[in-house]
Specification:
- It is a single chain.
- By secondary structure, the protein is α/β, with parallel strands linked by helices.
- The protein has three domains: about 1-70, no CATH class; about 85-195; about 200-350.
- It contains ten helices and 15 strands.
- A 13-stranded mixed sheet has the order 1-2-3-4-5-6-7-8-9-10-11-12-13. Strands 14-15 form a two-stranded antiparallel ribbon.
- β8 (about 200-205), α7 (about 210) and β9 (about 225-230) form a beta-alpha-beta unit.
- α1 runs parallel beside α2 (about 50-60) and α8 runs parallel beside α9.
- It starts with a strand and ends with a strand.
- Mean pLDDT is about 75; it is low at about 320-335 and about 335-350.
């Protein structure tokens, strides 16, 4: 059974959670044993301290009744009143395969919990807070050895998680991910894992030169799916350099630009010529006219002769922030109906 508890306000969230707990505890654990996925989400803008506190207390009652839980998402549930150590209330953390948290502020307790999760495959963390700005301890490869998908900031990825692993699907949050690579990361330790990744989504407007650096995207030499947002202008010469430096195994590229691209069609021709495996290219131009936002120009290109183009779509930036039903794309055909299913989340919307 999969349970999704989502509300636009904390009080609504708490009422749903309280009702769920009453039902499970009154059923002598039979209902709790059927629950394998639970998503507890409150929008950040709606978080209220007292509601956080009560929701955290209620969650303490709920977790011990979920012996077969495999996927847990908890967003904005009692940051202060519900420490990460409470995760150990789960009767069988070894069954957990997916964990999504908005914040980790007790890192030692978090590591202790991960040691009890040998089959964890997906880990998503918006923020890791440590004392005095210190770098969190490395998560050794023999801890959560099955990990193959992450969502986190660049510091946590390159300094704590990536080394010694085979992570297929990476979402990294940040505008200048190259800073961490150049300042503190063990390049020898992360080079191999970067080369093994299949999909990379960079959530944050990056400078063009950062995307073209030989130590940022180029080391991901076996990427099949790439989503990147660039904040400045892209020239055809820049696109030629992308074709030279980015993975030759790419089958899908999502390219968002905050500046401008002079000729979408020319960009597509260059990338399709440089990457024999590329099947679909999405280009989205985010523009502003003065203080007003202009509806983005969106183009989707399909490899073909002649090259096909579709502009009657809206894009959703591909990110793997929904781990509740992770279905990574194994064939290009999946992209047509469900673009980056499990990574993008929603299929494209047709515009009439």
């Amino acid at each position: 059974m999969c349970l999704l508890i989502h509300s636009d306000d904390c009080q609504g969230f708490r009422k749903c959670l309280d009702s769920l707990v009453r039902g499970i505890t009154a059923d002598r654990a039979a209902l709790g044993a059927t629950i394998q996925t639970i998503n507890l989400t409150v929008p950040e803008s709606a978080v209220d301290y007292e509601d956080e506190k009560q929701s955290g207390e209620t969650l303490n009652v709920l977790l011990p009744h979920l012996p077969n839980l495999r996927k847990l998402t908890a967003f904005y549930v009692g940051v202060d009143e519900w420490p990460v150590s409470k995760l150990m209330l789960l009767p069988n953390p070894a069954k957990l395969t997916s964990l999504t948290l908005n914040i980790v502020h007790d890192y030692p307790s978090f590591l202790a919990f991960l040691r009890a999760c040998p089959f964890l495959e997906y880990l998503a963390i918006d923020m890791v807070q440590v004392k005095n700005g210190e770098t969190p301890d490395v998560i050794p490869p023999d801890m959560i050895p099955c990990l193959r998908g992450v969502y986190c900031d660049s510091d946590f990825l390159y300094l704590c998680v990536l080394a010694g692993r085979r992570i297929e699907h990476i979402n990294v949050v940040g505008c200048d991910i190259s800073w961490t690579i150049r300042n503190g990361a063990d390049l020898d330790a992360i080079a191999g894992p970067m080369a093994l990744a299949r999909s990379l989504s960079v959530l944050g407007q990056m400078y063009l030169q950062c995307t073209l650096r030989e130590d940022v995207i180029s080391p991901y030499s076996h990427l099949e799916f790439l989503a990147v947002a660039i904040c400045d202008k892209i020239t055809i010469g820049d696109v030629h350099m992308m074709g030279e430096r980015w993975s030759k195994k790419l089958r899908y590229i999502y390219l968002q630009c905050g500046g401008c691209i002079p000729d979408h069609d020319a960009v597509a021709e260059v990338l399709f010529a440089a990457m024999a495996s590329l099947a679909i290219l999405d280009i989205e131009i985010k523009r502003k006219s003065g203080s007003k936002s202009v509806f983005p120009r969106c183009s989707r290109y399909f490899r073909g002769s002649p090259m096909e183009k579709d502009t009657a779509i809206n894009f959703v930036f591909p990110s793997c922030d929904d781990f509740q039903d992770p279905m990574w794309v194994d064939s290009v055909e999946d992209l047509v109906e469900h673009r980056l299913k499990g990574i993008a989340g929603e299929p494209p919307l047709k515009v009439s």
